[in-house]
Amino acid sequence: MHYWLVKTEPETFSWDDLARETCTKWTGVRNYQARNFLREMKKNDLVFVYHSGTEKAIRGIAKVITCACVDETATEGDWSMVELVAVRAFKTPVTLAEIKQDVSLKTMTLVNNPRLSVQPVTKTQWQKCVSLSS
DNA sequence: GCCAACGTTGGC
DNA sequence: GCCAACGTTGGC
Description:
DNA-binding; single chain; alpha+beta; about 35% strand; 5 helices; six-stranded mixed β-sheet
C-alpha cells in the first residue's frame, strides 16, 4: 500500500471532473520521473489530487483502480497512464501555504520539487495532510 | 559526454 | 507579469 500525489491544472482537468467520472484515465504525463512513479502505482494505492495555479491545494483523495498501462494519447515515445477513481473530497482543502508552514511536511516533494507531476507521499505525510483536511 | 540555449512549469 | 527551477535539445 503506497501513497501518491498527482498535480493537475483545474482549468484543464479538475478534482470535480474526476469526482464526476467513475473511471479516469490519468493520461498526458510526459516526464520520465513522473512516469516511473506512475508505473510503481498498484491497485488500491491512494492518491492526493492537487490543484496547481491559483488554488494551490490538495482537494481530495483518489484511488488507483488499474495500474500502469500504455498511454494511448501518446503519439510517440514510451508513456504510461493509470486509472483513478475519486474516493472523497476534502472538507477543507489543504493548501500549499499550510503544508509549507508545517515542519513535518517540509520534506514533501510538493515543497521541494513542485514541478514533478506525480510524486510519492510517505505515510506520515499522508496522515498529517488528512488530519489537516477535516 | 558536456554544456549552453531554450522552453515549460508553477509559485509569487 | 516575472523569475527561479528544472528538463530537453542540439552543437561541439
